[in-house]
UniProtKB/TrEMBL annotation:
<dbReference type="GO" id="GO:0015137">
    <property type="term" value="F:citrate transmembrane transporter activity"/>
</dbReference>
<dbReference type="InterPro" id="IPR044644">
    <property type="entry name" value="DinF-like"/>
</dbReference>
<feature type="transmembrane region" description="Helical">
    <location>
        <begin position="98"/>
        <end position="131"/>
    </location>
</feature>
<keyword id="KW-0472">Membrane</keyword>
<protein>
    <submittedName>
        <fullName>Uncharacterized protein</fullName>
    </submittedName>
</protein>
<dbReference type="GO" id="GO:0016020">
    <property type="term" value="C:membrane"/>
</dbReference>
<feature type="transmembrane region" description="Helical">
    <location>
        <begin position="65"/>
        <end position="86"/>
    </location>
</feature>
<feature type="transmembrane region" description="Helical">
    <location>
        <begin position="20"/>
        <end position="44"/>
    </location>
</feature>
<keyword id="KW-1133">Transmembrane helix</keyword>
<keyword id="KW-0812">Transmembrane</keyword>
<comment type="similarity">
    <text>Belongs to the multi antimicrobial extrusion (MATE) (TC 2.A.66.1) family.</text>
</comment>
Amino acid sequence: MGELPGICQTLLLTQFSFFLHLGVIGAAIAHVIFQYLISLILLLKLMTMVEVLPPSLKHLQCRRFLKNGILLLGRVIAVTFCVTLAASLTARKGSIPVAAFLICLQVWLTTSLLADGLAMAGQAILATAFAKKDLKKATKTATRVVN
């Protein structure tokens, strides 16, 4: 089973790149198809292990999700829009500005992911401290994460 994804991607890549004479575009198409295929396989495997879909649409609780996650959803949409717009505007300027943009984007992504990781770890420690009613540890954690 471990070799199957590699074999599948190799077959797709050779079919699209060489036999259909699509070159780099074919490689990109093969990569996207492979990603969707693997995602579908993993989803089907997950559906055999757990109940993924609720019995009815009323049990989905979309309102509850949107009520609690609307700010995060808005942040993700705003960041995606800004990065896409910046990449589009940078691409019009040439290859050197694109390289500079990509370097800045990687630095930003690194710091953003590190900050998100710190926030998640802090939230987990806070939740554990509150569950155990350890207010001293909760205060210490909050002070350390914020400072």
